[in-house]
Amino acid sequence: MEFADKNILIIGASSGIGLATAQLLSRLNANLYTASRTHSPELAELQTTFIELDVTQPLGTALDGLPEVLHGVVYCPGSIKLRPFERIPLADFQADFQLNVLGAVQVLQACMKRLKKADGASIVLFSTVAADTGMSFHASIATAKAAVEGLTRALAAEYAASNVRVNCVAPSLTDTPLAAALLNTPEKQEASAKRHPLQRIGQPQDLAYMASFLLSDHSSFITGQVLPVDGGMGKLK
Known about the structure:
Elements: E1 7-11, H1 16-27, E2 31-36, H2 41-44, E3 48-52, E4 72-75, H3 90-116, E5 121-126, H4 139-159, E6 164-171, H5 186-194, H6 204-215, E7 226-229
């Protein structure tokens, strides 16, 4: 895969999957524009134009400095709030929806004219295995990510004629700072690994490779898809 002369925007690039994707695309010579609430030391090591951005707030003019043509957008923000349904306050459902869905909506609305000018652009969103496979205590995040999957298909249909592809990646538990509380002991790591048919948990690089493939010309005939990168968890027993 080669991204020379391609302008790629990554939202949520300071850590986890977003950072791994930025690191990979940097090695593949992309012109990177990265946005997140904080500028991490790892992200600072990359050659990228950084934009301080909180997607739970109105964007204002934050993205006005992007180039006139964008070849790709990756939206990585996510959340993990696992608790019994009856103990999830409505505010948590609203916060998950704001971060995962409405944040993506306003970013993509701000970028769509630039994407259409590329004559072959790609959008990559992120869901979760729990949106398609029922899992206890996942009601809030599964609801929000299911909306992301619906958004993926709707936008893929609407913008296919403009040659803008829209796909979604659905990971299982991945070893990122977001999942630290779920993986903070060897026992938790072992138990999580055993729930996957491939007997390991996901790594950020696993998702970065899929995101980069979907951004690349190698996936030019793929749109409207939700692609699991979950070690077989969603389909195998």
